[in-house]
Amino acid sequence: MASSFLQRLVDPKKNFLARLHMKSVSNRLRKYGLRYDDLYDPMYDLDIKEALNRLPREVVDARNQRLKRAMDLSMKHEYLPDDLQAVQTPFRSYLQEMLALVKRERAEREALGALPLYQRTIP
């Protein structure tokens, strides 16, 4: 009951405020040429780091280029030109499937009592 309520609350198709928030986030990401998956930090979550390691090199390179461009634009206090903003796809996912696979594998390893595949170390 509560989970269906929460699903309905955050679903942009069913909730006006969620749709408004999604549009606002989309506009902000377009200004810098980012995708939503670019916002995940591999230093914060080791599952994200593992998922990025498993992705093809071209996908990771494109992500790094988008992040560099966004930082450069931010430092210059500029935005992408309007014609480039129009072709951006901020919610096209490239990380979610691999991230879900990594999380399932980790959960399976924990359920079987195996040692973790990776552990956080202090740099």
UniProtKB/TrEMBL annotation:
Q: Per the UniProt entry, what are the Gene Ontology biological process annotations, in alphabetical order?
A: mitochondrial electron transport, ubiquinol to cytochrome c
**What InterPro entries does the database record attribute to this sequence?**
QCR7 (IPR003197), QCR7_sf (IPR036544)
Q: Which SUPFAM superfamilies match?
A: 14 kDa protein of cytochrome bc1 complex (Ubiquinol-cytochrome c reductase)
Report the locations given in the UniProt record. Answer: Mitochondrion inner membrane
Could you tell me the superkingdom of the organism this chain comes from? Eukaryota
List the membrane topology term(s).
Peripheral membrane protein
Q: Which GO terms describe its cellular component?
A: mitochondrial inner membrane; respiratory chain complex III
Q: Name one Pfam family in it.
A: UCR_14kD
Arranged from A to Z, the UniProt key words for this protein are:
Electron transport, Membrane, Mitochondrion, Mitochondrion inner membrane, Respiratory chain, Transport
Q: Does the keyword Transmembrane apply?
A: no
Member of which family? Belongs to the UQCRB/QCR7 family.
The protein's assembly and partners: Component of the ubiquinol-cytochrome c oxidoreductase (cytochrome b-c1 complex, complex III, CIII), a multisubunit enzyme composed of 10 subunits. The complex is composed of 3 respiratory subunits cytochrome b (MT-CYB), cytochrome c1 (CYC1-1 or CYC1-2) and Rieske protein (UCR1-1 or UCR1-2), 2 core protein subunits MPPalpha1 (or MPPalpha2) and MPPB, and 5 low-molecular weight protein subunits QCR7-1 (or QCR7-2), UCRQ-1 (or UCRQ-2), QCR9, UCRY and probably QCR6-1 (or QCR6-2).
The entry's function note states:
Component of the ubiquinol-cytochrome c oxidoreductase, a multisubunit transmembrane complex that is part of the mitochondrial electron transport chain which drives oxidative phosphorylation.
Q: What is the official name of this protein in its record?
A: Cytochrome b-c1 complex subunit 7
